[in-house]
Structure formats: structure tokens, C-alpha cells
Specification:
The complex is a heterodimer. Chain A is mainly alpha-helical. Chain A has 13 helices and 2 strands; from the N terminus they run αααββαααααααααα. In chain A, α4 packs antiparallel against α10. Chain A starts with a helix and ends with a helix. Helices cover 75% and strands 0% of the residues of chain B. Chain B has 14 helices and no strands. By secondary structure, chain B is mostly helical. The chains are: A mainly alpha, B mainly alpha. Chains A and B meet through α1, α2, α3, α4 and α5 of A and α4, α6, α7, α8 and α9 of B.
């Protein structure tokens, strides 16, 4: 049962139980050609729904097999030994690592991206802005494996200065203590993730800032506002929902990023207080690094952790959509 | 450089303003000061004097501007400097990414590298190439496109031309949701279905199925946007002549938007070409040429980079190959992007009103 056969067999037999609205739309569909074409296109739509349901169903099914055999608490255990006797594994470390690295990435990337987007739309000379916008577009297309290669061979050796500085002045907090090992830690991962999501957030924010009604800006200028006041009073309020949705897109990518993290992070299955020392792990990284030596049980355990990642990304995307939807109504009332 | 000389005589209508060269003067001053301070303190990192100069610039321009022009102008200047700092902060690593890839990649990138596989080359030895990986990538991505383009375009046609009511809303929503699926989760889904339940081995086709899950929503979104751009008058004219709806779509709507749809498909292909995670789970990797995407592990460019890095044991030859493969991959994606934009531009006047 593969994708292509599903797609070609399902549609012709399925004009389906059409909703009344659909019937109205397809009233002209008396000719056989029309009926087949409607069936094909509606079938594709239904196929997308079936596919989503299948993803959820099969992941849940395999995950339930693994969790059923698990002797440790799935949510709180610090073990990852699904092939052992008895099998024990938990996602506490992965939740911690994923959240911490994504938060670092967001804290760095969102302000910087908004800055670049403002730079392109409001500060840079027009031609330079266009050029930078184009370069950012291209950077968004650079695959994550290349970011990973660059991260581990170029970024990691260059982090020493920042790390020793953080250790010297902020080491007393414990969070920034550093034992002097290679910089393959959650902080470096966070910085690399920030670089990776920067082009996406910048792109979307730039588009939103471009759509700010010219009148709003000119009105502010006419009242004697400085450029910064124009941005604060007319550009940022207008673009807020766009920036939030852009950030959510970036967060989604940071949460699910696999290869770059797997290459840069030197993983371990414990939670350390320090962000600078190697260790920790993220959902996607753990799946990629543990897959090679995993037995069937091990693969099921990885699928269980992937299921959690799936649910988290769904929640993030859903939240983004809710924020945008609410914002739309609000600004619609204003416009 | 005292304040008295900078201060023009304030008029009654306009507040005092600093001359245009003020920013560059402060910048030069703070760079000089930064260099002076860091050499006096015995710091020898480029980053350190740069940071000192940047901080000095922001503080000095705020202070002087607040005194002469008032705090609102001073805030404006600070905001400007911060925006510039954000820009420079991001440019340095991203430029380094491109620069390092090109510089280290061109070392071994030649015709031999593109036309030979790794079959007889040990991982730590120089030599070998990416022929098998290019072949695998093209086959896997091609198959993924073959699956997702019909599904994606037909779904978009359904949403734009037929879709009303609950089904269309559900499809729109779930296409949105699908856009956010991490690539590794798509890989795990095919793994659970294809490998664990149907007991099939790794193959290029298994990877293509996972890649098409990532590609379908992109194709649907871009095709939908393009179909919405087709003017309704065209559809109405065709229907008024008695042409059936399906022929109207095939002969009028699709040809009008074919440029945009092609662009969208190419951008989607560019997006999935670099995906590594699903390929890692489903296709694995090999050093030999495997032309059959339906059987046995296949190499691909992203996995080739990963393998060279993992098996290098610190050998320079393997790293060189990894960089060269990375450069090839980026070049391929950039060319796809450029061609896609070219098509969009070339077709644009015809699709316009």
C-alpha cells in the first residue's frame, strides 16, 4: 500500500458523499469528463486528509507498542535503553534540550531578524536593500546539512573566545560555567539554529513591513515623528501579527531541525546546569544519532519520541494560526 | 571638536540639528578610541576592539545628540545604530558560511570528482567523487516530484475551482498543518509503515515517499496562489462558449498559470533536495553506484556530506570531499532557484491582465 497506488485507485470510485455545497459547485458535472476530473481533484484533497490521519495513526500505533513495553516512566526517565532487558527509556532530557536550544535560537534570531527586515525596508538604500533581500532569500534555501558542516568545522572552533568570556564574567551563575571542552554544547546549537531560522523570519517580516499602508507612515512623518517613531507607531503595530507568525515558523523549524544539531552537539543522556558544557540532546538529533544501532524495539522507541515532537510542532503551528486569526479580526475592525 | 562648533544657531521654528557628517565623525572617533583602548589594555582580538568601538559609537552619538538635538532625535539615532548592528551581526556568520563553503569546496571539485564514485576509495584517502550521490539525489527527488506534483496540483485545483464547504476547509487546514511537519517525522512515518509493518528494506523509493510528504503542501500552496491569480473573466468566457468545466481548467486555467506553477514546483524541489533526515532513516547510504531506486541503499548528496564527515576520522581528504559535495548541493539548489525565478519573470507578462 504505497502512495501512488492509493492516489490512482481512490479517486475514480469516489465521487463520495458530497456536502450540499459541493453539489451546487458541481452542478454542471453531468458530462463524464467533468465527473472524472472532479473525482480526481477531490480524491487528491481527500488523499491529503487520509495521509495526515495515517501519519498520526501509524506513529501512535508504533509508539504505543514501544511505550507498552517500557519499564521506566516515558516522560520523566533519564534513561535511553530501549533494547535493554527490561527496556527503559524516557524523553525528559530530550524535552529539556529541545526547549533550551529553541529558546536560545528564538531569543537571538527574532530581534536580529526584525532588525534586518527593518534595515531592508526602512534604512538601507533601495538598491542595497534589494540585494540583501535577495541574498537572504538564497540563504533560506541553504540545506541544513551544510549549516551542520559549517557549524561543526567553522563555528565550533571559533566559539572559544565567547565561551571563555562568558565563563570568566558569568561563570558564577552556573548556567555559563565552562570546563574548557570543545564547544559542542546546547549554546552553540542554539546559536547555529538562530542562524538557520534567521532567513525565514527575516523574509516573512520583511514582506509584512512592506505592506504597511504608506498613509500611516506619511501621517506619522507629517506629525513630525522621527524615523524610529514612525517605526514604533505605525510599522511595528501593523506588523506584529506577521512577526509573530514568522517567529512561529522559525520555531517550528528550530524544533524539528535534525542534521545540523546531530553534527554539532556532542550528546549525552543527562541534564547539566551549564549550557556551555557538551551534553544533552534534542528529539530530532536523538532519532538521527540513535537510529543506526537501533533494533526494532529501539526504532519503535524513537518513533514514540518522534510522536511527541510531532504533537509539539502541531501545537506551535496551531497557536500561531490562532494568534494570526484573532489579530486579523482585530485589525479588520480597525481598517 | 567642542560642542560649540557643532551647534548651529537654533531658529525659532526648527530644533537644532547635527550636520550630516556627524555620524561618520563619531564612527571614526570611536574606532580610533576603540583601537587605542584595546592596544593600551593589551587586547589582541579583532572582535574586542570592534565591540568597544561599537559600544562607544552608540553611547557617544546618543549623548551628543541628546544634548544638541533632544532625546527624541537621540533615540532615533540609537535605533538606527541598533538596526545596523543587527544587520552586521547576521551578515558576518552568513557571509562566512558561503565563503567557507566556496573556498574549501573548490579544492577538489573538478570533472573527475563529479564523474566518479567512492567505490574503491577508503574514507580517509584522497580521490573518489560524488557521481553515485548525484545520481541517487536526482532519482529520489525526481520520484518525489512525480508523486507530489499530480497530487499537489490536483488538490490545489480542487481547492480553487471546486472547493466549498467543510471538506475544502479541512483540506486547507491540514495542508497548513503538513507544512509544519518536521522532516524527521515524515521519515518516521514511512519507517513505521514501509519498513516496520510492510517489512520492506531501505530504498530510494522509500525516501521519495517521505520527501513527497514534505513536498505536497509546498506544491499545493504555491499552485493555489497561482490559480487564484487567473482572472475570472477567462473562466467565464470559456464556460459561456459551452466548454465543459474540466476542459476549461485544462485548456484555459492551467496554461495561463503554468509559469507560476512550474516556479512553485522547482522551488519545492529545491527545498527537498537538501533534506537529509528522512534519507538517513529510509535510504541509508552506500559508496557504490546503485541506479535502481526501488532496491537497496542509495547514496545522495546530503547523506554523502554526512558520511564523509562522520567517517573522516579527522582526515583532511574526507573534509575536502564533504565541502565539495556541499558546494555542489548549494550550486544545484541555487541554479534551481534562479531558473525558477527566471521562468516566473519570463512568464509574468502573459499571466498578467
Amino acid at each position: 500500500m504505497d502512495i501512488t497506488t492509493q492516489q490512482t485507485t481512490a479517486p475514480p470510485t469516489a465521487p463520495g458523499p458530497a456536502a450540499p455545497a459541493d453539489k451546487r459547485a458541481a452542478r454542471g458535472a453531468t458530462r463524464p469528463g467533468d465527473r472524472i476530473f472532479l473525482g480526481l481533484s477531490r480524491g487528491s484533497g481527500i488523499f491529503v486528509l487520509v495521509l495526515m490521519a495515517a501519519i498520526a495513526a501509524f506513529l501512535t500505533y508504533r509508539a504505543s507498542i514501544a511505550i507498552g513495553k517500557n519499564e521506566a516512566n516515558f516522560f520523566t526517565s533519564f534513561e535511553w535503553n530501549p533494547s535493554g532487558v527490561p527496556p527503559e527509556f524516557g524523553i525528559a532530557v530530550l524535552v529539556f534540550g529541545t526547549v533550551v536550544s529553541s529558546v536560545i535560537a528564538m531569543v537571538i534570531a527574532v530581534p536580529v531578524s526584525v532588525g534586518i527586515a527593518l534595515f531592508i525596508t526602512h534604512y538601507a538604500p533601495r538598491r542595497l536593500g534589494g540585494l540583501i533581500g535577495y541574498v537572504v532569500d538564497l540563504l533560506a534555501a541553504v540545506p541544513s546539512i551544510v549549516y551542520g558542516l559549517w557549524g561543526v568545522l567553522v563555528l565550533v572552533p571559533h566559539m572559544g573566545g565567547l565561551y571563555s568570556w562568558l565563563d570568566e564574567y558569568l561563570g558564577w551563575t552556573g548556567v555559563f560555567a565552562w570546563e574548557g571542552g570543545p564547544a559542542r554544547s546546547l549554546l552553540t546549537v542554539g546559536i547555529l539554529l538562530a542562524l538557520m531560522i534567521l532567513p525565514i523570519i527575516t523574509n516573512v517580516s520583511r514582506e509584512v513591513f512592506r505592506q504597511v499602508p504608506r498613509m500611516h507612515e506619511e501621517a506619522a512623518l507629517a506629525l513630525g515623528a522621527t524615523r524610529w517613531e514612525v517605526i514604533r507607531m505605525s510599522v511595528l503595530p501593523f506588523g506584529r501579527s506577521g512577526v509573530i507568525s514568522a517567529s512561529m515558523l522559525g520555531l517550528g523549524r528550530a524544533l524539528g531541525e535534525t542534521m545540523a544539531v546531530a553534527m554539532v552537539l556532542s550528546p549525552s543522556f543527562d541534564i547539566g546546569a551549564s549550557l556551555l558544557d557538551p551534553g544533552g540532546g534534542t528529539f530530532a538529533q536523538n532519532i538521527a544519532s540513535k537510529f543506526n544501532e537501533a533494533t526494532v524495539m529501539g526504532q519503535d522507541a524513537l518513533i514514540a519520541s518522534g510522536m511527541v515532537l510531532f504533537v509539539i510542532t502541531l501545537l506551535v503551528n496551531g497557536a500561531a494560526r490562532l494568534i494570526i486569526a484573532r489579530r486579523k479580526e482585530y485589525s479588520g475592525a480597525n481598517a | 571638536m567642542s560642542h560649540a562648533t557643532l551647534l548651529p544657531k537654533p531658529s525659532s521654528l526648527r530644533g537644532a540639528t547635527l550636520p550630516k557628517w556627524f555620524s561618520s565623525a563619531v564612527a571614526a572617533g570611536s574606532v580610533a578610541l576603540g583601537l587605542g583602548i584595546s592596544s593600551a589594555a593589551g587586547l589582541h582580538s579583532d572582535i574586542q576592539w570592534g565591540l568597544i568601538a561599537a559600544v562607544l559609537f552608540v553611547v557617544l552619538s546618543y549623548g551628543i545628540s541628546a544634548k544638541v538635538e533632544g532625546s527624541r532625535q537621540a533615540k532615533d539615532r540609537t535605533a538606527t545604530s541598533l538596526v545596523w548592528v543587527a544587520f552586521l551581526l547576521a551578515v558576518v556568520p552568513l557571509a562566512s558560511l558561503i565563503w567557507e563553503t566556496v573556498e574549501r569546496g573548490v579544492k577538489v571539485l573538478d570533472v573527475y570528482f563529479l564523474t566518479h564514485s567512492m567505490g574503491v576509495v577508503a574514507d580517509t584517502e584522497p580521490g573518489g567523487g560524488i557521481y553515485h550521490a548525484i545520481l541517487g539525489t536526482l532519482e529520489q527527488v525526481g520520484l518525489a516530484a512525480l508523486i507530489s506534483v499530480p497530487v499537489g496540483v490536483l488538490t490545489a485545483i480542487y481547492l480553487v475551482e471546486y472547493g466549498r464547504g467543510r471538506l475544502a476547509k479541512a483540506v486547507t487546514f491540514f495542508v497548513d498543518v503538513m507544512t509544519g511537519i518536521p522532516s524527521i517525522v515524515a521519515g518516521l512515518f514511512i519507517l513505521s509503515l514501509w519498513v516496520l509493518i510492510l517489512k520492506m528494506g531501505p530504498s530510494g523509493f522509500a525516501g521519495s515517499m517521505a520527501l513527497s510528504i514534505l513536498m505536497i503542501p509546498i506544491v499545493v500552496r504555491s499552485t493555489e496562489e497561482m490559480l487564484k491569480l487567473v482572472p475570472n473573466e477567462l473562466r467565464e468566457a470559456s464556460l459561456a462558449l459551452g466548454v465543459p468545466k474540466w476542459r476549461t481548467i485544462l485548456k484555459v486555467v492551467l496554461p495561463t498559470s503554468v509559469g507560476g506553477i512550474t516556479t512553485g514546483v522547482m522551488l519545492a524541489v529545491a527545498r527537498i533536495t537538501g533534506e537529509t533526515a528522512p534519507v538517513l532513516l529510509l535510504v541509508w547510504v552506500t559508496n557504490y553506484i546503485n541506479t535502481n531506486p526501488f532496491k537497496d541503499p542509495q547514496a545522495s548528496l546530503p547523506m554523502y556530506i554526512y558520511l564523509q564527515y562522520m567517517n573522516s576520522a579527522g582526515s583532511g581528504a574526507a573534509y575536502d570531499r564533504a565541502w565539495a559535495a556541499a558546494l555542489t548541493l548549494i550550486a544545484f539548489i541555487m541554479i534551481l532557484n534562479l531558473v525558477a525565478q527566471g521562468i516566473a519573470r519570463w512568464k509574468a507578462p502573459k499571466t498578467g491582465r
